[in-house]
Design a protein that fits this description.
Residues 176-281 form the Purple acid phosphatase N-terminal domain. It is a single chain. This protein has 618 residues and is mostly beta strands. Helices cover 10% and strands 34% of the residues. It has 9 helices and 39 strands. The strands form 8 sheets. Strands 15, 16, 17, 18, 19, 20, 21 and 22 form an 8-stranded antiparallel sheet that branches. Strands 26, 27, 28, 31, 32, 33, 35 and 36 form an 8-stranded mixed sheet that branches. The longest helix has 11 residues, at 440-450. The radius of gyration is 26 Å and the shape is globular. The protein starts with 5 loop residues before the first strand and ends in a 14-residue tail after the last helix. Residues 1-53 have low confidence and may be disordered.
Length: 618
């Protein structure tokens, strides 16, 4: 047991907590000194108070995140000392059986920390000097925080000290808006998170043309409870109250117009709580001939800007996530809509990480539509109707993805939908539900593909999380890609002349030739023109999660492949010209690209298995 600890948290202010000794398993058993010293550097005065004093306040200027520094001084340091951030501040430090995922080395605590660092992360000499200074980035998550010191490593943690509470000025504030296409081209859905239930306040969005009078649109409110989770850790150590998720629909938008908006809550005492102001550009009219740019990728996940780990990751778990995020932010003026096709957060049942993810993508998702698809790490739990019997979602069984993000599906529990953006028509499948011929989803896919008006929307795009088409790195059941139903889907892609099919799941990049029934139907490699006689299949699963290496086998249909983090970008210049690029996340450089040029008559032309049956009478 250590005899002395000095734990210091500095932001605009400085918090000093002196020696504590632990005599039990829970936070209530920590014995603090009677006084602490708080130095409010901004106002240059000192206050002495007991640990039951007002908590340290963050976000005093309305920020939804803030950096803190934890300065550690310990006369008896050990290599396995670690510092954790908990929220809510009161937590259960007892040891619970671990819930293990591949690559995970989580703390074995009954309350999962939001994040943690080892004390020697910032000072390799910690075990000699006993001194360390650790920086953490805290985001507004509707509850207070505490910072705790443990020894014993992650597998045998022993609580040594706990700071006083740290809280945001308004922990219930509306935060992290994410836009998505509504069910019509001129509708934008705005979803956000807050701590206000409908019995506390009325949620709404105030919006309008930039610089003109604003209108207000009401929002619906959803939440879910522990009982909605389908298994551990989401139902056990990973559970955290998700707050309230609000969605408002901004309707009858004018095409190509700049709107401003802010999130609001009207309290029942007549006062208002406001977010900061945001903006977006509305969608083009379907078929409009103009420059339109689409980004698509899968498997990004989240990462901590402070370099910490969370309860669902070990070091370098999602190493490319921030690079992808930052590159998208840098290029945001040149992107109109994003599709993140599954494996969104890799929260895997640790609910707090969805807040971390929505905070990470907020600069993107608050400005352009951020459309998602369902992946195995969102949906799959044995015995819950998922097509694959794994617990890859950590007990979430789709509830988090369906609630935290809006998609224009008829039934959000069945995560398939169609959406239009200008000259593009998208059919987004749910690979975690049955897609085989005769299934409900198969019928949707055919209806979606058949509904594309190729004269107005020449670019027909199919997307799903798992590889339902081709990947040389995805060998399963004697087939490259999911074998079940693949032949049936190929018939649909060919019949309706799908231009490109995108997938995630495999954590690399690969592009095929235009292909049908395992054969290339075009010998070109970088420019395609004329008749649509096969579909190009592209794996864009290198958004941020650990990369998969490519196998040495070279198939005759694989044109380009690379194992590096990146994202795909489609640029439609007009109805006859399309550019695709695979861009590297680290610097935006282009790894691979190709173009398609064709006329409407090329889409209409007959190809093998791509013509309607005819008779002499017709």
């Amino acid at each position: 047991m250590k005899s002395f600890l000095s734990l210091k948290v500095s932001l605009i202010l400085l918090l000093l907590v002196h020696c504590v000794v632990v005599h039990g398993d829970g936070i209530d058993d920590v014995q603090p000194l009677s006084k602490i010293a708080i130095h409010r550097a901004l106002f240059a005065f000192h206050v002495n108070a007991s640990l039951k004093a007002e908590p340290v306040l963050l976000g005093t200027k309305g920020e939804d995140f803030q950096w803190i520094t934890v300065a550690l001084e310990c006369p008896d340091p050990l290599e396995d000392d670690w510092v954790a951030v908990f929220s809510p501040a009161k937590f259960n430090s007892s040891t619970c059986p671990p819930v293990v995922f591949p690559g995970q080395d989580a703390p074995h605590l009954c309350s999962a920390p939001i994040k943690y660092k080892f004390a020697n992360d910032s000072n390799a000499e910690y075990t000699k000097t006993g001194k360390a200074s650790l920086k953490f980035r805290l985001i507004n998550q509707r509850a207070d925080f505490s910072i705790a010191l443990f020894s014993g490593g992650l597998s045998n943690p022993k609580l040594l000290a706990v700071s006083n509470t740290v809280t945001f000025t308004n922990p219930k504030a509306p935060v992290y808006p994410r836009l998505s296409q509504g069910k019509s081209w001129n509708e934008m859905a705005v979803t956000w998170t807050s701590g206000y239930n409908i019995i506390d306040a009325v949620p709404f969005v105030e919006w309008g043309f930039k610089g003109e009078s604003q209108t207000q649109s009401p929002a619906g409110t959803l939440t879910f409870h522990r009982e909605a989770m389908c298994g551990p850790p989401a139902r056990t150590i990973g559970w955290r109250d998700p707050g309230y998720i609000h969605t408002s629909f901004l309707k009858d938008l004018w095409p190509n117009s700049l709107y401003t908006y802010k999130l609001g809550h009207r309290l029942f005492n007549g006062s208002y709580i406001w977010s900061k102001s945001y903006y977006f550009k509305s969608s083009p009219y379907p078929g409009q001939d103009s420059l339109q740019r689409v980004v698509i990728f899968g498997d990004m996940g989240k990462a901590e800007r402070d370099g910490s780990n969370d309860s669902n990751e070990d070091t370098n778990y999602q190493p490319g996530s921030l690079n992808t995020t930052d590159q998208l932010i840098k290029d945001l003026d040149n992107i109109d809509i994003i599709f993140h096709i599954g494996d969104i957060t890799y929260a895997n049942g640790y609910i707090s990480q969805w807040d971390q993810f929505t905070s990470q993508v907020e600069p993107i998702a608050s400005t352009i539509p951020y459309m998602i698809a369902s992946g195995n790490h969102e949906r799959d739990v044995p015995g819950t109707g998922s097509f694959f019997e794994t617990n890859d979602s950590g007990g979430e069984c789709g509830v988090l993805a369906e609630t935290m993000f809006y998609v224009p599906a008829e039934n959000r529990a069945k995560f398939w939908y169609s959406t239009d953006y200008g000259m593009f028509h998208f059919c987004i499948a749910d690979s975690e539900h049955d897609w085989r011929e005769g299934s409900e989803q198969y019928k949707f896919i055919e209806k979606c593909l058949a509904s594309a008006d190729r004269q107005k929307q020449p670019w027909l795009i199919f997307a799903a999380h798992r590889v339902l088409g081709y990947s040389s790195a995805y060998w399963k059941d004697g087939s490259f890609g999911e074998s079940m139903g693949k032949d049936s889907l190929q018939k649909l892609w060919q019949k309706y002349k799908v231009d490109i099919a995108f997938y995630g799941h495999v954590h690399n990049y690969e592009r095929t030739c235009p292909i049908y029934q395992n054969r290339c139907v075009n010998s070109e490699k970088s420019h395609y023109s004329g008749t649509v006689n096969g579909t190009i299949h592209i794996v864009v699963g290198a958004g941020g999660y650990r990369l998969n290496s490519h196998i040495p086998l070279q198939t005759n249909w694989s044109i380009y492949k690379v194992s590096d983090f990146g994202f795909g970008k489609l640029t439609a210049f007009n109805h006859s010209s399309l550019l695709f690029e695979y861009k590297r996340s680290s610097d935006g450089e282009i790894y691979d690209s190709f173009t398609i040029s064709r006329d409407y008559r090329d889409v209409l032309a007959c190809v093998h298995d791509g013509c309607e049956p005819t008779t002499l009478a017709t």
